């Protein structure tokens, strides 16, 4: 499939995801929306996402529990060493879905820790700064910490890793340090 066609398809999916999220807020399908910015070795990422909280509460004790949410995302990556050539750029679009488990207070305010493993589809194969991903499908996993304010803002920091779990080589992975701002409706 041609690169332009892949980008058009992924852009359409991302637009539908985000537009649907805004409209779904009225129906209760979406609980929050977020913006993430990540940085890794010679690559940057900007990510928009919508979330739907799970109703489940596991291991409830002392005012805390394990819960979670679904995360639907659209991201843009910009590499600055395409094919390991400094100054050469690679632009990628990524869409993903991730179930995220979160250990938090029962009122969902204050400090939390979370982790998730999801599925992602890339517009083209990643090849930047001597890191290569040989499939358009990648797993994306993260661990993070954050704080939810009384005014419904969720501010977090996480370590994000993308890899195809050695389905096909090369598979050097891509890592990011990610800052996140999420608003809960």
UniProtKB/TrEMBL annotation:
A Pfam family: PagL
Topology class, membrane: Multi-pass membrane protein
GO molecular function, one term: hydrolase activity
Keyword check for S-adenosyl-L-methionine: no
Keywords for this protein: Cell outer membrane, Hydrolase, Membrane, Signal
Secretion signal span: 1-24
Family matches, as InterPro entries: Lipid-A_deacylase-rel, OMP/PagP_B-barrel
Annotated catalysed reactions: a 3-(acyloxy)acyl derivative of bacterial toxin + H2O = a 3-hydroxyacyl derivative of bacterial toxin + a fatty acid + H(+)
Keyword Signal assigned: yes
EC numbers: 3.1.1.77
Compartmental location: Cell outer membrane
Family the entry assigns: Belongs to the PagL family.
The protein's assembly and partners: Homodimer.
Annotated function: Has lipid A 3-O-deacylase activity. Hydrolyzes the ester bond at the 3 position of lipid A, a bioactive component of lipopolysaccharide (LPS), thereby releasing the primary fatty acyl moiety.
Name of this protein: Lipid A deacylase
Organism: Massilia suwonensis
